[in-house]
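INFO batch 0412 | record 1 of 1 | parsing
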Amino acid sequence: MAEYIGIKGSTIQSFSSDPPAPIEGQVWYNSTSNVLKGFGQFISSGVWASGGALNSAKAYAAGFSPTTSLAVQAGGSPPVPVGTDTCETYDGSTWTEVNAINTARRSLPGVGTQTSGLIIAGYAGGDVANVESWNGTCWAEETAVTTARRQAPGFGASSTSALLTASTAQVNTEVWNGSTWTEVVDPNSGRGQAAGSGIATSGMYAGGGPTPGWLNAETWDGTSWTTVANLLTGRGEEPGSAGVSGTDALIFGGRTPAPSWADVTFTEYFDGTSWTELADMAYARIVPARSGMGAGSTGALAVGGITPPATEITAVEEWSLPGATKTFTAS
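INFO prediction complete | emitting tokens
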């Protein structure tokens, strides 16, 4: 078995009290309390904080970002029902309006990064199949998806690698390789208004349903869908999400099922085995910008959306993992 000195190049130091300014990854023995401690980023210490506000209030928009300081929001509403063609980018503090998308629409996902992204399908008075790519400056039309749909989650790492999955009306999944869309295996429980995050070969699809509030969650491994542990709080109405894989995913906000029909602030994290409830958002919101806004457990964005009773907002919240001291215990 590897020893700490072999891994870190030093022995574990002993202190009578915790160091005043520990560094990431530092481990020490507290001789006063007789416990082993460490400092680092722990999922249980994650928090939401206010970010820079959007220039205009929007919901049902597409969104994508690799971090909390690089993001794109496109489309959405108002207006209803067609949607808007506006687009904003985020630098970690300020949103800037940039070149508009080609087809105004709402209820669509976005995937990728601030310099290489896609917006996929959506609703523009009727379901559309249009796909557009973003290069950091301009939007360009790409090959349309096989089946038009709205309120379907998507995930992917760039404009050349993406997946679009089921909506309320369409259960099929399509994969994008940069030039063509190919139909692949359907999810085990096709549903709309769900959350989705990850990359085209490893993702999470959770919540949603014919009516909002399902508990169902599935992971995608690039070939097939696997049903995994249920959410702790069933929710629909397009909750926010973020993740880098099917085993590192956040879901936040959304609306619980009847009879409560409550918009929620709840955040849950999936580690590949189970869901854990974490810190709540400040705003209960449905339909924030989607999909996969951020890097999962280490960083996420909740962008816009609708708060009770039915108001689009400009508010943005940022999820992060501040450094924290933890006591190690035997398990």
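INFO post-check: The helical segments are 4-8.
INFO record closed
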